[in-house]
């Protein structure tokens, strides 16, 4: 009969513990990877889902983040391979997560709160190809009004 210490030593040998440490580092490196690649905000909207047969699966919470990450995919792959040369990483797959499957530790507060909910609109839609002239006073949602005013100012500043 074997002692419990022998069984634990057998199950948790040094090689397995080293491998577990590498995987732990791998799954916790995402924020650093996004920071290094100039997209720090992506870390709160995406996460490493798994590593399967050399493919790093990354989930995002919005299609826009998928597009942004795809523009950095080559660089991210290079960084994964550089940081984890013994993991045999051969590619990256970026996918949109299903509603309700987002990990708790990646949730972030929305940048703008109280923006009109889907289906609600405070401004009448344009009926022809030309944009309508409107005053900001026509917009009832204060957060949306403030956001549009900042956007207009940044566009004007960029064009001058």
Characterise the protein shown here.
With 160 residues, the chain is an alpha+beta fold. The protein folds into two domains: 4-105, GMP Synthetase, Chain A, domain 3 (2-Layer Sandwich); 109-160, no CATH class. It has six helices and three strands; from the N terminus they run αααββααβα. The protein has helices spanning 4-11, 14-28, 30-36, 63-71, 73-83, 142-159, and strands at residues 46-52, 55-60, 91-96.
Can you describe this structure in just a few lines?
The chain is 42% helix and 12% strand.
What distinguishing features does this structure have?
single chain; 160 residues; alpha+beta; GMP Synthetase, Chain A, domain 3; 2 domains; 3-stranded mixed sheet; elongated
Describe the secondary-structure layout:
Layout: H1 4-11, H2 14-28, H3 30-36, E1 46-52, E2 55-60, H4 63-71, H5 73-83, E3 91-96, H6 142-159
Parallel strand pairs: 2-3
Antiparallel strand pairs: 1-2
The tally of domains stands at 2
Oligomer: single chain
The main β sheet shows up as: 3 strands, mixed
- The order of strands across the largest sheet is 1-2-3
Number of distinct beta strands: 3
Alpha-beta classification = alpha+beta
- Series of secondary-structure elements, N-terminal to C-terminal: HHHEEHHEH
- The top-level CATH class of the largest domain is Alpha Beta
If classified by CATH, what would the architecture of the largest domain be?
2-Layer Sandwich
Q: Please mark out the parts with pLDDT under 50 across 5 or more consecutive residues, or reply none.
A: 108-132
Our Rg estimate from Cα atoms comes to: 23 Å
Helix tally equals: 6
Q: Which descriptor suits the 3D outline? A: elongated
User: Which topology of the largest domain does CATH recognise?
Assistant: GMP Synthetase, Chain A, domain 3
Distance between the termini: 83 Å
Q: What's the overall average pLDDT, rounded?
A: 75
**Beta fraction:** 5-15%
């Amino acid at each position: 009969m074997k002692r419990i210490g022998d069984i634990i030593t057998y199950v948790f040998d040094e090689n397995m513990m080293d491998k577990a440490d590498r995987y732990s580092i791998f799954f916790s490196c995402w924020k650093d990877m996004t920071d290094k690649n100039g997209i720090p905000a992506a870390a709160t909207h995406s996460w490493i889902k798994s590593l399967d047969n050399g493919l790093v699966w990354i989930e995002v919470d919005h299609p826009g983040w998928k597009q942004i990450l795809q523009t950095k995919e080559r660089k991210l792959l290079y960084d994964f391979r550089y940081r984890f040369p013994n993991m045999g990483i051969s590619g990256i797959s970026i996918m949109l997560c299903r509603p309700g499957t987002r990990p708790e530790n990646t949730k972030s507060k929305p940048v703008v709160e109280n923006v009109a909910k889907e289906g609600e609109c405070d401004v009448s839609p344009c009926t022809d190809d030309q944009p309508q002239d409107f005053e900001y006073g026509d917009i009832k949602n204060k957060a949306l009004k403030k956001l549009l005013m900042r956007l207009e100012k940044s566009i004007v500043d960029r064009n001058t």
